[in-house]
TrEMBL record:
Lineage: Bacteria, Pseudomonadati, Balneolota, Balneolia, Balneolales
Descriptive protein name: Methylenetetrahydrofolate reductase
Pathway participation: Amino-acid biosynthesis; L-methionine biosynthesis via de novo pathway; One-carbon metabolism; tetrahydrofolate interconversion
Family the UniProt entry places it in: Belongs to the methylenetetrahydrofolate reductase family.
PANTHER family: METHYLENETETRAHYDROFOLATE REDUCTASE (PTHR45754), METHYLENETETRAHYDROFOLATE REDUCTASE (NADPH) (PTHR45754:SF3)
Substrates-to-products reaction catalysed: (6S)-5-methyl-5,6,7,8-tetrahydrofolate + NAD(+) = (6R)-5,10-methylene-5,6,7,8-tetrahydrofolate + NADH + H(+)
């Protein structure tokens, strides 16, 4: 089923998850071990799987020469999505990124997903990881997520990149990313919300937000989106602070603010960071649910336990 249909058909807020594929060479069984618990305890309607751009790095060869290499650290998004559908019968949502892909490669990936019976995609730009090969690609690259959304919408109308007569239309539901604290490259939130509106006008069915720790940012963001005519569901994305290091790493990698109050609580009692993070997230979820959010999307990366603790805490309230 399409993600948007899950939201439209549900009378309850939906709990969903986002996972990352294992590192190259890692065991998919480890992902299944986590997902077995998630599925048993929550049975989410859909599970997102992130996509990872290839990264450039320099390797020193035995003779001392340096070689520039490019490789994807976490390959296998589409395969993992197929495995999730097969193993759990739960709708997987692969992320597709613009970064490092030509439009032709994106079209190939979408054809593959269509054959697999996967009809949901989160269309994302990705970030520059230094892997872009400096070929003259003559405009065959999607620069922004909105360009990828347009490409998917075109395929849904049977318009592939080449003029193919009687091409089979695809049937994808498309999600996009939104940023309550604005995207780090955007000059201001108003400007960023207008760019989000472009993605929705291009055919995005729903928005998932970047993680945030202050609900006020989400509520103001949603208000601004509505004022700008964005009327699709805006799903709050949450991560649970569970290590002291998160106080530094989350703002660094995701360009978000951690409220002073939360920082002060952890600073005062670092040994209890897991409990503090759980309690904070519980209160965040409760307030979001009380205010009628369509669902909550948990970023669990490799470890579902913090999110499962919060969900069981919510049930106990
Ligand atoms: P866009 O919507 O393209 O926006 C990027 C920036 O460009 C914004 O500042 C926007 O305001 C600006 N912009 C948009 N259109 C234009 C235009 N026409 N002209 C000028 N400026 C413009 N990264 C991964 O690598 N893999 C993942 O799987 C992944 N999943 C994610 C899931 C979610 C829910 C979120 C919130 C983020 C995810 N990311 C992922 C991170 C994402 O790749 C980065 O945040 C990236 O920097 C922006 O992606 P986007 O799709 O929001 O980009």
């Amino acid at each position: 089923m399409k993600v948007i249909e899950h939201y439209e058909n549900s009378t309850e807020p939906l709990i969903s998850f986002e996972i990352i594929p294992p590192k190259r060479g890692g065991a998919v069984q480890d992902v299944f071990k986590s997902l077995d618990r998630v599925v048993e305890e929550v049975k989410p309607p859909f599970i997102d799987v992130t996509y990872h751009a290839a990264e450039a790095y320099v390797e020193e060869l035995p003779d001392g020469t340096l070689k520039r290499r490019v490789r994807r650290k976490r390959p296998g998004t589409i395969g993992l999505c197929a495995a999730i559908l097969h193993r759990y019968g739960i709708d997987p949502v692969p992320h597709l990124i613009c970064e490092g892909f030509t439009k032709e490669e994106s079209e190939d990936a979408l054809i593959e997903l269509n054959y697999l019976g996967i009809h949901n995609v989160l269309a994302i730009r990705g970030d520059n990881t230094g892997s872009q090969v400096s070929l003259n690609l003559n405009g065959t690259v999607n620069k922004y997520a909105v360009d990828l959304v347009k490409q998917i919408r075109n395929m849904n109308h049977g318009d592939y990149l080449e003029d193919i007569v009687n091409a089979e239309p695809t049937n994808f539901c498309v999600g996009v990313a939104g940023y309550p604290e604005k995207h780090f490259e955007a000059p201001n939130l108003d400007w960023d919300v207008k760019k989000l509106k472009d993605k929705v006008d291009a055919g995005a069915d729903y928005v998932v937000t970047q993680m945030f720790f202050d609900n006020a940012a989400y509520f103001q963001f949603v208000e601004k989106c509505r004022e700008n005519g964005i009327d699709v569901p805006i799903i709050p994305g949450l991560k649970i602070l569970s290590t002291e290091n998160h106080l530094k790493s989350l703002p660094k990698y995701f360009y978000l603010n951690i409220p002073d109050e939360l920082t002060a609580e952890v600073d005062a009692n670092p040994a209890s960071v897991k409990d503090i993070g759980t309690e904070w997230s519980l209160n965040q979820c409760q307030e979001l649910l009380d205010n009628g959010v369509p669902g909550i999307h948990f970023y669990i990366m490799g470890d579902p336990q913090p999110a499962l603790n919060v969900i069981s805490g919510l049930r106990g309230r």
